[in-house]
Amino acid sequence: MKDLTSGNPAKVLWLFSIPMLISAMFQQIYNIADSMIAGKFVGEDALAAIGASYPITMIFMAIAMGINIGCSVVISQFFGGKKYREMKTAVTTTFLTCAAICLVLTVGGLFLCDWLLKMIQTPENVMEDAAVYLRIYIGGLSFLFLYNICTGIFTALGDSRTPLYFLIASSVGNILLDLAFVTVVKWGVAGVAWATFVAQGISSVLSILTLWRKLKQIETAEPPVWFSGKMLARISRIAVPSILQQSFISIGNIFVQALINSYGSAAIAGYSAGMKLNTFGITSFTTLSNGISSFSAQNIGAGKNDRVKAGFRAGFFMMLLIALPFFVAFFFFDGPMLRLFMNEGSENAMAVGRDFLRTVSPFYFVVCMKLLADGVLRGAGAMKQFMITTFADLIIRVVLAYALAGIWGTSGIWMSWPIGWTIGTALSQFFYWNGSWKKTGV
Question: Where residue 33 falls among pLDDT bands split at 50, 70, 90?
Answer without folding.
Answer: confident
